[in-house]
Amino acid sequence: MTLPDRTAPLEAPSAGEALHSSDPPVRMTRWLAVGSLIGLILLGLAWELVLAPVRPGGSLLALKVLPLCIPLAGLLKNRMYTYRWVSLLVWLYFTEGVVRAYSDRSPGAWLAGLEVLLCLTLFAACALHVRLRLRHARDVRQSQPPVQV
């Protein structure tokens, strides 16, 4: 069993990798996803600690943002798998926002509406990002000549 040579220079990214990372629509969906995720984190903290806490002085509901912090590194590293599972995780926060938009009084209802908007933005950005990257990979694969053995 041989170990990989860690002293060798890193290979340049393939043409497909270089294109998908610099493609403007893919870049836009990436930053829209990252921005809306950071917005959800900041909104959750501000909502439960300062703006409209359940109890005066803040509440432990601020801990609900911890699961949102986990995928942030994966989105920043442009990992496809992270975009896929974040698009599922976000529906928990969407549900909370819808419930609290109808049950809370103002300003909590307005903050819940903002949470719903950020969740929809995050879902759309993640879904579109995955779709664009898969389409690009398919196009690159089809444009390459078949390998003959």
Note down, in words, how this protein is organized.
This protein is mostly helical. It has one domain (23-143). 72% of the residues lie in helices and 0% in strands. It has five helices and no strands. It has helices at 15-22, 24-51, 66-76, 80-103, 108-143. The longest helix has 36 residues, at 108-143. The protein is elongated.
Helical percentage: over 70%
Q: Biggest sheet, open or closed, and with what strands and sense?
A: none
Structural category is mainly alpha
How far is the first residue's CA from the last residue's CA?
Answer: 26 Å
Cα gyration radius (Å) = 20 Å
What string gives the helices and strands in order?
Answer: HHHHH
Mean pLDDT over the full residue set = 85
- Count of helix runs: 5
Quantity of strands, as a count: 0
Number of domains: 1
List the uncertain runs: 4-20
